[in-house]
Amino acid sequence: MPRSTTAATITTSPDPTDPPRAPHRWWILAVIALAQVTVVLDATIVNIALPSAQRNLGFSDGNRQWVVTAYALAFGSLLLLGGRIADLFGRRNTFLIGLFGFAVASATGGAAPNFEVLVAARALQGVFGALLAPAALSLLTTTFTDPAERDKAFGVFGAVAGAGGGVGLLLGGVLTEHLDWRWCLYVNLILAGAAILGGLLLLGRHERSAARPRLDLPGTLAVSAGLFALVYGFSHAESDGWSDPITYGCLIAGIVLLAAFVRIQSVVANPLLPLRVVLDRDRGASLLGMLITGAGMFGVFLFLTYYMQQTLRYDPVETGLAFLPMVFGIMAAATSATVLLVPRFGPKPIVPGGMALAALGLLLLTRLDLDSAYATDLMPGLILFGAGAGLIIAPCMSAATLGVRADDAGVASAAVNTVQQVGGSIGVALLSTLSATAGSNYLADRQPTPDALAQAALRSYATSYRWSAAFFAVGLVATALLFRPGARTPDPTAPPTVHA
Predict the structure, then answer these.
(1) How far apart are CA 448 and CA 388, in angstroms?
(2) What is the pLDDT of residues 324-346, one digit of tens each?
(3) CA 221 to CA 265: how far, in whole Å?
(4) 497 pairs with which residues across the strands?
(5) Residue (of 122, 119, 126) closest to 82 by Cα position
(6) Which of 15, 200, 427, 466 has the smallest set of CB atoms within 10 Å of its CB?
(7) How far apart are CA 126 and CA 79, in angstroms?
(8) pLDDT digits over 5-46, tens only?
(9) Beta bridge partner(s), residue 12
(10) Roughly how many angstroms between the first and final C-alpha of the chain, as a whole number?
(11) Which residues, 6+ apart, have CB-to-CB distance to 350 below 8 Å?
């Protein structure tokens, strides 16, 4: 079927103002990408600022994790609710409210006079991030309905989503070293302000859900509490171990609550996350791919940051610059995959191929030593890993939202963000435990001399890379089996997708 016919069958333009807005869709993409950068940066930029913030505000090492955990808990547990709010009350309004609230929370955190205010601001960032992130992705889904344009748009968006963590490390290092740690939060005012202005000018006052069904309160409570318990359990495992009663109690409670949520979704009239959204075979494969990537990427960002700064003695700016080849690899692979490869071959060979490249890059990193050279030892692994991540993230984001009904776009987008967030929490907790165990085992029958401690650190880092590579190896097999062969086109009999 000719592309123009396909696009016509899946796109409805009942509003005569739609055609004048169409020429601005690439500017809308820029606004959405800028908003995504605002959210993604905060996953890593604050980590660089933590030592300076701790010295300035005087909080303990034990409390330090809450600056990161408060954001993750609020963000991860409220994403599905944020996605459904976007579907029910309008993606534009939810997008702008999320941006404005995120900026206010960032300003509050930047001006925090004490630890308590900083943690509260980080939690508030997570709340508004949970509104913003799914609204941004759903706006992208409903703005670009032509298959060729959609591929290009998702290539750009996937590149931004994948590279944001590395950019955050660089920007955090520059701001902390040359200005102040508080600017790692204040910078969001600039980014969010520009995105708000662009959103007000470019985003039309598009539809809310026509039927306006009631919000699924039992499902909302079950999934929010379940995700909170799951993320908290994994975060607690990182600091207190897997045998701690709070750790396994939270994990068990999270699993039970999420199982109850699935049951609720199968019986209620207006489910928060309709099961049709996640039971599609390609969509399920995409969500699994994002879960594994979220878990595995922390093996690079977290432990390579420690390696560069503690072993190679890089300063924060040098550490951020060292990640740039990986960032470029993600961007180049993401755009190439969605524009050139996926339209021709479909995601089945591309995503598993990305898993293989990411695993190979991680295995190269296991060879790092106390005096490894950047150009010959570190950079090749970073480039391979970045290319692999780019081949996974953008195609999975696109496939996870392809063909969803207009009134499910927000919650489908939220599902993508949720599995990535939960994957990150799993990755940090599991890899931290495995790496710490490897380091302790190395020192068990040795004197803790400086050289032995350095070698133990190398052993712990290498262990995290191997396990991350194992995650991607599992992902290779799973996505190769689950994805349907061939390029996937939207179903012309599906309900129409409306413009943003």
Answers:
(1) 38
(2) 888 888 888 888 887 788 788 88
(3) 12
(4) 11
(5) 126
(6) 200
(7) 9
(8) 333 333 334 444 343 444 577 788 888 888 888 887 776 777
(9) 498
(10) 25
(11) 337, 341, 342, 391, 395
